[in-house]
Amino acid sequence: MNQIFKLTSRRNFLFALGALAASSTVVISRILERHQDIEALDNPQRNFTVTQELSLKQRAAAKGLFYGTTSTKSLLAANPAYMAAIVENCSMFVPEWEFKWTAGDTTLRPGFDKFDFTAADWIADFAATHKLLLRGHTLVWHESLPKWFKDTVNRENAQQLLQNHIQTVVKRYAGKIHSWDVVNEAIEPDDGRDDGLRITPWLESLGTNYIDLAFRLTAEADPKALLFYNDYGLDYDTPKHEAKRTAVLKLLERLKSKDTPIHGLGIQGHLSPGKYKFNSQKLRQFLADVASLGLKIIITEMDVADNYLPQDITLRDRIIAATYEDYLSTVLDETAVIAVLTWGLSDRYSWLGEFKPRSDKAAVRPLPLDQKLRRKLAWNAIARAFDNAPIR
Ligand code: G3I
């Protein structure tokens, strides 16, 4: 009996060893393939040189475009050099926190009928002082809502709350805002609804009409601002991004057919090379479909996450630059695109350091300037895309 047991367990052991070896080979070959795929993202012959000593905003302006970025009051107030870099490169600005209901160290809406404009006013003054076109971000979003929101808002008071918010905030800055992201990230096909709408507190308390309502209220409060719908996950050749493009397009068509005062689509443009495949034809078609509705397009929050890229900085920076140039040269071919903003200007102040850190703990490098505000290849790539863009 013992003998049989020994033989069987020896056979099992050898079998398990064989299976382990086979599965390790599969894993190793997958890692190698992935490594090769990522290396292939860089073409060593490609160069990112730029001609002329011009800033990004000057290169954009030569094509009838704007270039901008985001930051916060606390960061700008504490970093004169960073503020100077923004003023040098940008013609457009969007606050990262101050126009949201609450974010970071700022709360615009401390209570159901309370407003605190201290930080938002500072941002509006900063933009006016430096002649930066100001974007408002954002009036209706399922994130960045204050704690009291969940306990207080219901079907009876939601419309009054939204109306009061939009009338008060939008009127206060009327005449100072280039464009509002009226509604942010309202599409999520994974939530399983036929209309593709994300299930949010706004949808639950106001019904499907809340998007149209928000646009109408904003247009009434500031008839001159351009009104945008803003979303992410629209860029790549994946079934998920394809579903999102389709649902966003349907939403825009529905709004246009109801004469909702909407003027544009904000495409956030948070890119992830090494994770997803890019197909310029599919993106170009989507942009053309949006433009055919008579809408403008802004790339509102571009950055290039490097958490799937190798640690080597030279290689990483080349892949990031190529990602910027390939994406921007595709989108800028569409003349309905009127502006490009990156979600930050320097690697030192990117949300990605906290939200998508690298597993090797190396500092992330997703933006045009490095930690010390020196230009990177990504800066050149953006400059080249502006230089090669058609005039609009
Ligand atoms: O500063 C505190 C920190 O002390 C604390 O340890 C940490 C814990 O989570 O929170 C920190 O503040 C957070 C801040 O980001 C800094 O990381 C805030 O809670 C958080 O509200 C804030 O997140 C912002 C986020 O939107 C939500 O408002 C990000 O700064 C901002 O970059 C991000 O921006 C969004 C766009 O609005 C919409 N599209 C996606 C984009 C990136 O997520």
UniProtKB/TrEMBL annotation:
Family of this protein: Belongs to the glycosyl hydrolase 10 (cellulase F) family.
PANTHER family reported for this sequence: BETA-XYLANASE, GLYCOSYL HYDROLASE
GH10 domain: residues covered: 69-385
Protein name in UniProt: Beta-xylanase
E.C. number: 3.2.1.8
SMART domains xref list: Glyco_10
The reaction(s) this protein catalyses: Endohydrolysis of (1->4)-beta-D-xylosidic linkages in xylans
Pfam families xref list: Glyco_hydro_10
